[in-house]
Amino acid sequence: MTGTLAGLRRAGMDDRGALEALQRAAYAANARIIGRTPIPMEWDYGAVLRDWEVWLADQDGVLAGALILDLRPDDLYIENLSVAPAAQGSGLGNRLLAAAEIRAGQLGRDTLRLLTNALLVRNVDWYARKGFAIERIDDDGSRRITHMVRRL
């Protein structure tokens, strides 16, 4: 799918540098909280742009947010929802999440899933307020990962 989704635009390979910069900025605080590199900072963004749907939000000509989606057989997986520090608190995260819901409907999926680090309590609480429930918490010895689900 190309074009727009709820005011977002579909990313292309030419957005890679801006997307990587957004992710570094958006995840800097999380890295301090969890004491290690967040998983999205370890990704190859060439592969991300090739293999997943990436939707971008621009504000005043600057990349302010990203929504990265993976269509799986039984759900739409939110691989990533990130907002630039300058845009946090502006409602952009809500807009990105609403776009994921719209896209799930377009794709005939009635379930959204995602994960976040259990130490990111603010994220877990935000998703819970948006109707997500904790499915499970995995502890691999170096990370505690909270898996969350929302039925639409």
From TrEMBL:
| PROSITE patterns, per database record | GNAT
The record's InterPro entries line, in alphabetical order, gives:
Acyl_CoA_acyltransferase (IPR016181), Bact_Acetyltransf (IPR050832), GNAT_dom (IPR000182)
Q: Which organism is it from?
A: Prosthecodimorpha hirschii
- What CDD domains does this protein's entry cite? NAT_SF (cd04301)
Pinpoint the N-acetyltransferase domain residues: 6-152
* Lineage top rank: taxon: Bacteria
The entry's keywords: Acyltransferase, Transferase
Q: Specify the protein name.
A: N-acetyltransferase domain-containing protein
Q: Does the keyword field hold Manganese?
A: no
Checking Pfam families in the record gives:
Acetyltransf_7
- A molecular function (GO) term: acyltransferase activity, transferring groups other than amino-acyl groups
- Gene3D superfamilies in UniProt: 3.40.630.30
